[in-house]
Design brief:
Helix 4 packs across helix 5 (102-113) and helix 10 (180-187) crosses helix 11 (249-257). The chain has helices spanning 4-7, 29-34, 37-43, 89-95, 102-113, 119-124, 134-137, 147-165, 170-176, 180-187, 249-257, 297-310; strands at residues 18-19, 22-23, 49-51, 54-57, 69-71, 78-80, 85-87, 192-196, 199-204, 207-211, 220-225, 242-246, 266-270, 288-292, 316-319. The chain is of the alpha+beta class. It binds zinc ion (ZN).
Length: 325
């Protein structure tokens, strides 16, 4: 999706950042601040409580009645699903409106944590006059759907429910070779299933993805929005031990049909397609991930790439041939 997370640390994206010949961004200061995320949050009045492997809190940004905000088990990343936010301590600073650029966020976090910034940090970063080029800044702006697109997603969700009750989804389930209850199951939640222009649609928290009729290319199209996280990722709960990650929503449905979510310890999520974003890897921290990709060359290539990104985050990475293989 975006490379913003990695780019923002590249010195050429920021103001001059040299102390002598040394790049100040290489001195470990930023990483040390990242590890102090819970401390920064506490200073911002976010009250974290432990829930399984994660620290959770009521979201400081949206009107949150249940703890939707969580620090991931690696202690360095956090997120709020209803807000579609995830990131490190510097992203949090910007998310909370305390900084509008990465350099400002570095200054804010350092000031909050009492971190001494070297000459280079202090001079170069906080009020950098040269903003990064727009193309590189754009991904940092949180993506939000227009009210019209939100309404569209809501309408698709209701239409699915109506169609299901009227038996209209049964043929669709049969086409996918799935029992109807699987579609009902997968329709629950923020990610889910919709019915749009007589077609099955996959609902993402920030997008509506349509299945095109058989034989139609492309097989899918986005009616609006996009994927900011794998499909159904909100089902990865604090107690989830294993995540089955497949390369498409229909494969995920097949995994649900195979009963993998039945005991509540596993969640089935979709990549989507082979478009897994590297930025999503930290979301899998502390969990066993089973990659259920196709065993064809593109699937195997994608699985190897994703496995590489997940290494260091997931506790264990396995590849498994799905029920269709
Ligand atoms: Zn939130």
């Amino acid at each position: 999706m975006t490379d913003a997370g990695r780019n923002q640390e590249r010195p050429n994206n920021t103001a001059p950042a040299e102390v002598g010949k040394r790049n100040v961004f290489d001195d470990g200061t930023l990483e040390a601040m990242r590890c102090r995320l819970p401390e920064y949050l506490a200073a911002r009045g976010v009250e974290l409580t432990r829930q399984g492997a994660r620290l959770v809190a009521r979201c400081p940004v949206h009107d949150d009645t249940s703890p939707s905000f969580a620090v991931f088990p690696n202690g360095k990343n956090c997120g709020c699903f209803p807000c579609d936010f995830q990131g490190d301590v510097f992203a949090v600073s910007q998310w909370l409106g305390r900084a509008s650029t990465f350099p400002e966020a570095v200054a804010d976090v350092a000031a909050t944590l009492g971190v001494y910034l070297s000459q280079g940090h202090a001079q170069g970063q906080p009020r950098a006059p040269q903003a990064p080029p727009r193309a590189e800044r754009e991904p940092e702006v949180p993506f939000t759907l227009s009210p019209g697109d939100r309404q569209k997603i809501h309408a698709a969700r209701l239409a699915f429910s109506d169609a299901f009750d009227a038996g209209g989804i049964d043929p669709e389930a049969a086409k996918l070779g799935l029992p109807p209850w699987v579609l009902r199951w997968a329709a629950m939640g923020e990610s889910g299933l919709g019915w749009w222009r007589g077609r099955l649609a996959y609902i993402y928290p920030q997008g509506l993805k349509l299945r095109n009729p058989a034989g139609h290319e492309p097989r899918f199209q986005w009616e609006c929005g996009r994927a900011l996280a794998p499909w159904r990722f909100e089902w990865v709960r604090p107690e989830t031990q294993t995540v089955f990650l497949s390369e498409g929503e229909s494969d995920t449905l097949a995994l649900i049909a195979a009963g993998l979510e039945a005991d509540g310890t596993a969640a089935c999520v979709a990549a989507p397609g082979t478009n897994f974003s590297r930025e999503w890897a930290p979301m899998f921290a502390g969990r066993k991930v089973v990659l259920c990709f196709d065993s064809d060359p593109p699937g195997m290539t994608a699985a190897a790439k994703v496995a590489g990104w997940l290494a260091g985050h997931a506790t264990e990475i396995l590849t498994w041939k799905g029920p269709r293989a």
